[in-house]
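Weekly structure sync - notes
Attendees: PM, LS, DV (DV joined late)
Agenda: review two folding runs queued last week.

Item 1: First target. Sequence and structure tokens pasted below for the record.
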Amino acid sequence: MTRTACPYCGVGCGVSAEPEGRRLTVQGDAEHPANFGRLCSKGSALGSTVGLEGRLLAPMIGERRVTWPEATNLVAKRFKDTIARHGPDSVAFYVSGQLLTEDYYAANKLMKGFIGSGNIDTNSRLCMASAVVAHKLAFGADLVPGCYEDLELADLVVFSGHNAAWTHPVLYRRMEAARARGQWHVVIDPRRTDTADGADLHLALAPQMDVRLWNGLLADLIRRGAVDRGYVAAHVAGFGDVEAELSQADQSPAAVAADCGVPLADLERFFRLFAETPRTVSLFSMGANQSAQGVAKGSAILNVHLATGRIGKPGACPFSITGQPNAMGGRETGGMATTLAGHMDFDDEARARVGRFWGAPRMTQGPGLKAVDMFDAVLDGKVKAIWVMATNPVVSLPNAGRVREALKACPFVVVSDCMAETDTAKYAHVRLPALAWGEKDGTVTNSERRISRQRRLFAPPGEARADWRIVADVATGMGFGDGFGWRMPAQVFREWARLTAYENTSRFLNLGPLTGITPEAYEDLEPVQWPVTAAGGTARLFTDGRYQTPDGKARMVPVAARGPAEAVNGAFPFALNTGRIRDHWHTMTRTGLAPELCRHAPEPYVEIHPADAGPLGIAEGTLTRVQTAHGEAVAVARVSDRQRPGSVFLPMHWTEAYAPSGRANPLVAPKVDPRSGQPEFKHTPARVRAYRETWRGFLLAREAWKPPAGADLVWRRTPQAACQLHEFAGRGDERERAAVQKALTRKSGDVLRFDDPATGSLREAWIDGDRLDRVIFFTIGGRLPPRDWLAELFEASALTAADRTALLIGRPPGRAVETGPTVCACRNVRTPRIEAAIAQGCATLDAIGEATGAGTSCGSCRPEIARLLAAAKGDVRHAA
């Protein structure tokens, strides 16, 4: 087995994988200290995502396949010409947390040291930028003080805008033993997520009231005498300024509870728990960061921990959890427009230091454009050439329609990606084939500062190349070959390690012992946390109370509570919140290839409270329009009191390839935090109404299908084991349905047909030899049959006579069809089977797992099973 690292979230799990041809057996690496053998649903399904379907395997100029020299020479020439005519700030790189550290380092070096612009930013701007700024303000550098062991040692864990049960399932499972011994969980989140359901206390605060809550907590700690005055005097500056800021508002628990929209008793319980529990870890993630006041939220959390001295100690720290597998590596190497490599800034001394190390001919003079500003500059014509690496900004950025227009208007767009077709790649003048996970060779850094090796499992397919090498080839074409002459990733890593140690007398980020690493030692590198010393890695920072500031003291930062950047109003009365779901990742480029990951949430949905849905005529499963001033989406309604009244939730994963009408980010306002530039994904004023389709249908086919041009349909595609399921709905008349039917009709093969024009019901099945090729069902107002049995027929080598007879009925003869939401994606176990097991006496998670198989593989579904179990027991605190 080859030991490598998972390419999904910031937990940075170790993976043991065994390739066989282009297939892959995957299991958790029992020796990796991030996960000790556990994997979530996404990591467990990695073997389903390593095929070559949809891959970009050769350089392309337009639609013409070309050689690598032709492609890189064109990119180099167009960038050189643009810089010569318009200056270095007329070009930009937009990169990704999916890159390895070596890739990040190469791209940053080229842009900031050789092109001479700061215009390189990463999609980590969308998830971690506010935490970065908060860390720098408090600690003097972007330093995460804790480690995962602290989550097991803590007596209280506070999840602030962090649905760990879905977004970081392995970390959540690491706390199971601590929960069993009595660890308390408090969740601060407007939504009742699976993490909130499993918590001892859920504070469902009003949108954007985080700072008010944390400021209120600090004021309460001061009143109680729970501030560690000795620690503050010795190690913290700014406490008096924060006290003065707190005095500007009524900080009584009653006033804080009223502003936050939470029960006073719950708030006081939280305040008391925090005050009385020295071993406290506060986890904060996207719910805190993705805000126009994300820096203030982060600073408010850090203030509380600094005031109580709960930092640098086992089981006590503030802990920012990263979203992507190498967001930390990008932050370290200068992948953000606002920092230089090695946690250095743009002061003259640091610029000169990095310039000397690189032998840079044209060192950047200062920060570059942050992500949202960068694409605004593209649309405005200030940036005339942009290179997008391993990310899909047409889907992931806020106000995504504007990003689409920017790339469409840009004179020169380069996309390097592993996939041939993405929403962004369609605007590329040049597409460069990059390696995918399983083919890459390099390092990543996880949320606890742990560097792990991501090792190659497969030979590079076609002409795909490592991202660092693509960058180096373009740099050479631009005349900078002397600075980019690496032949292997170990050489890139060694140079990066040397930079961290270069003239380093005070910077915490230091890989000194790795500066002379050999290719053999690089290949065998074990996971290690920085700072790296001769004795090994460093688990916790600030254990001695010293910080990376001129006087060695941390800084508490005064922050004022304020409302949302854009308030709801009569035209847009709802607050739209967007985010991730359990089994998908970002824009589904990888997870969309795994049918098992499409079971739990097979289609875009909008979650809405019953009190809001009823007056709007929206019921469970109703197609629903969500509109903002920036765009519109149509998704299936999930009516649930887990959603706060007045707010709606829309997942962000779907793209044009899977559900063009269900894309969330075109709706998001491009509001950003003024200091970090991180967008506000958690609050955009919206309105909601029923879609009111006139007809519905579905298609099961062996190949992916798209509606005919001009068809005004809502549709989505969900991969199945042996076919593709397409659901569609329209608001047109018979002519619209006829046009869709014509587009679906095959020219050959046997066809079974049932057509009732009076009711608008149409059912057709095409059979190629003895195998099912496609099935279509249309209806105006009637019910459509379940899809699962029909999808299973595509796996059969030959249809039976009974199958043929039942095809147009849509149900198997002689047996019931199990329906209901899928809970366990790995074992394909649905809600009814779990509820039946509970009714038959299964009273624990393990008993349910033994009876049904649910929760016995990766365990990502265990929180949801626990919720079903609690509901059956009448535990309203944890029930859905």
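Item 2: Second target, run right after the first with the same settings.
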Amino acid sequence: MGTTTPPRTLAEALRARGDESLAGLLRARPDLLNPVPNDITQLATRAGTRASVVRALEHLDRFALQTAEALAVAPDPAPYDTLLSLLTGDGLDDGEQRDDAGAAVTAALPGALATLREQALVWGEDERLRLVRTARELLAPSPQHPSPTGLGPTVAEATAGMSPGRLQEILAAAGLPATHDPVSAVAALAALFTDRTRMAELLDTAPVEALSVLDRLVWGPPYGEVTPNPTPPVKWLRDRGLLLPVSTRTVVLPREAALHLRAGRAHRVPEPVPPVVAAVAERDPQAVDRAAAGQAFTALSTVEELLKLWNGGGPAILRAGGLSVRELKRTATALEVSEPIAAFWVELAYAAGLLASDGESDERYAPTPAYDEWLDLSAPDRWTHLATAWLPATRVPGLVGGQDAKGRALSALGPELDRSAAPEVRRRALALFAELAPGTAPDPETLLQRLRWERPLRGSSPTGEGTDLRSRLALWTLNEAELLGITGRGALSSQARALLEEGEETAAARLAPLLPEPLDHVLLQADLTAVAPGPLERPLAETLSVLADVESKGGATVYRFTPGSVRRALDAGQAAADLHAFLAAHSRTPVPQPLSYLIDDVARRHGHLRIGAASAYVRCDDEAVLNEILADRRSTGLRLRRLAPTVLASQADPGSLLEALREMGYAPAAESAEGDVLITRAGARRTPPRTPPTPVPEGPPTPDATLLGAAVRAIRAGDTAATVVRKEPAEGASAPRTSSGSLPRTTSAETLATVQAAAMTGSAVWIGYVNAEGAASQRVIAPVRVEGGFVTAYDHTADEVRTFALHRITGVAELAEDET
């Protein structure tokens, strides 16, 4: 029986893993797959690059990160017991509370270490744990980048370059025997600091003020400034090596001394257990569902109202992109919400693909054709469409009104609102909601603490928003979830829980009974208003919104009929008889006489005047009306003149002339070149077909099982090609000419003979190959057929049958044995 040799490098450690373990590494760090590494050595090299290690560290929870930080200040390699001691302390200051913390650390450490091993941040057996060099450099202390543990450099690192005479002075002051060997002197000083008994005796002789200085440095930062003439306490510490010089004005507390003062702990408070998300209230789940459904209905109404507001062409787009502050304020006023909430609704409609740029020269925002399709859906399906667009969106409305890294204002629908961490924060926050009992509202502060524990390094942002972006994203998530009806009264609704766990159909089915049924009637009143006691059916709501103006909203909507609103309906092609019939059919109360008179009066005057292009003209069969217009002082700016008894010409364009005469109290109608009345359809402007904005990915997507399996096979095959043993040539035969890492070189005749022999015997060979793009690679192939200048072979590297051109094979070598 043989013994397993411990790995000497990360590549050897990865090579010893099983396929499932390699697949786990690639799943946890998908950036390693782009492109698929050629072999294990390349995989290990890529796993040790700075960018990849930083990304891996960002995905660690707090205790796994604390474990990595402890390894960064431990000896390299470090035994498991040493690592455990750094996390629990040496036990000499334990109380009952410290014992409990130590037990929790002891229980959690194997799991944290397994996570670090799985992600190839730590390798080696428990007796020789090694943190990958790049991670050690990132987490180890230095004057420019202090360690997260607050520890400084070791005695050996801090005394590097110190004169032997100065070392002798420190040894003498500390009561250590003199030695002329600098290495022995450093070792003696380090041994003093790690000996608890001798260190306690040394510190017992220290002035009280010196101990106060140590207290300020012990938990970091370990660096302090000194004057050319330091105070006696500082001089006492410096003379005994408890403070070592870094520069002429800076000293540092060496790591060994700090660990003694910390009772051997690398962290003040290890956090092996995630914080518990506390509940602030437990509510009736049905009440939560009803509240969330009510807010979901409000969300649908608000989005529909927003897009109706921009139906005929919305606000212009800024030159830099996005919505101006004035237009956002105008939209917020129209929706009767605050500007931040208006920004959320605008961004939600954009994320759902219901709103986009029209692409015209005078670029404006307008509804998309998808908006009409959305309106045709049932209310529950419309809500699930919005919710599923919100969950993966990387655009963050909460940033609107802030500034980017260059001090420029961030606008709604602008180009700088994407934050790739937003979807992960949203889903994780809602997952924590879902872990609570139905109807339970979590405490926001403990929720934030849990999110910080799970990703302590993920708060920073390249746009300069500081280290609290993740917490801000979580708070915005809580607010937006309440606005959208994901949560109700602070708790996750059952329809949202179904959306997260079971899909859109189940969520829509859960929501449907909670939404009010649309009504097919209104209540007309004598004061020229109509009351809608609930949501209206879509055809009724659309017609009524043209015929009347919304006066107030709430549980019931109040519409007011005005001459302008009636004229708007007539401009849309309705006749007075149509309006009377519509009101009679949809009113549960008799049609008031004042409303009938209003419709008839506006209809009688509507279209009496005709506007056309002359630049513009006014045509009317009643000469007295034209005389009245010419005599009116308000028409002076129109520069009207009579062309015929029934025709006036104007220098204004038809649109301006139309509006001016309406402001004067007339009801003109526009006409075409053929003399037909032009009907203006309300809300007919749409953008060309648009796709919703694509979320900005945070990194490479998580690979599926098929891709992982193929990648592992390719890496294994490439490793075989790179490490396989080649057969030594027979005596007198020419050997393939190779150098370390280069392709084999053989003559064309030797290549052909070797490949033909391999095809006859069914054996595998090692080749060098240059493809049509000039990329060179090493492969292990099993030739099947050799003809016409091509070799058909099974390529173990790619795990498939391929055809190779003979003239592109640089060389070939037989394998010592069939290792494939």
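Discussion on item 2: The CA atoms of residues 354 and 601 lie 39 Å apart.
Action: LS to circulate a short write-up before next sync.
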